[in-house]
Amino acid sequence: MSQQIAKLTREWVVDRLPPRPANANKGTFGKVLVVAGSENYPGAAYLACAAAYRVGAGLITLATEPSVKVIVSRKLPEVTFLSREGIFGKIAGYNVLLIGPGLGQSNQSEKLMEQILKSSLPPAVIDGDGLNMLSKKGKWWERLNGELILTPHPGEMSRLTSVSVSKIQSNRVEITQQFARKWEKVVVLKGANTIISSPIGEILMSPFANPALATAGTGDILAGAIAGLLAQGLKPLDAAGVGVYIHGLAGEKLSEKIGDRGSLASELLPLLPQAIQDLINKTEHRVS
Length: 288
What we know:
Elements: E1 5-7, H1 10-14, E2 31-35, H2 42-54, E3 59-64, H3 66-75, E4 80-83, E5 96-99, H4 107-117, E6 124-126, H5 129-134, E7 148-150, H6 154-161, H7 165-170, H8 172-183, E8 186-189, E9 195-197, E10 203-205, H9 218-231, H10 236-258, H11 271-287
Parallel strand pairs: 1-10, 2-3, 2-5, 3-4, 5-6, 6-7, 7-8
Antiparallel strand pairs: 8-9, 9-10
Helix pairs in contact: 2-3, 2-9, 9-10, 10-11
């Protein structure tokens, strides 16, 4: 099995940043439908939606339960809402689907995932409890067609693959590549030096290993960022790579501000567009 690894670089990312034409409108930058949040995890929905906006997506709609809607609408009034039951028949109106952050694994969520497995989907990102629910369904990958990005941490990857966390962590590149090929999906194995594999075995590695990102909620932000970039027209592998790099660069900026401990995931959000602008500015300075 090939293990040629390309390290994500500033130049690679800048070459793939989506354009921002002056005559654009919100439709230009894509619409994301986020299915996320539950009574116990409302913050995950907020972080994912905010991240998608912060990387430049044009419109974010959150399908969630009423208690989460109240919380998110107060923190992020730019989000529009649907009920979870109201998404079917409307999914086709969105450029991208993000499902899973803080969704929980209730009977209602299980039924929702089963309906999604039967649906025709736009390009999608599956994270968190979306992955945990998939892991309970035999040969789920044969039922999910289209362009998909899976964003597991090692524990979720273990549940999806029935491979121990210790074995995954000692063979991160090989395991990610093996299952990306088997599932025919882009797989983002989160952690220090996040590994990304395409369905044909292309490997990208993040240059960032930052303990400031080892805190609750940063994975929800990464999923939202990838979904937001996917909505702007990037191909799945490119959206994953650009999202991982921007997320890591924002984490570096956060560490510079407050150090390696005590950071909150929400503090990462305003640093995402700053990280993108830093990439652009340094490239323009080098060209001039």
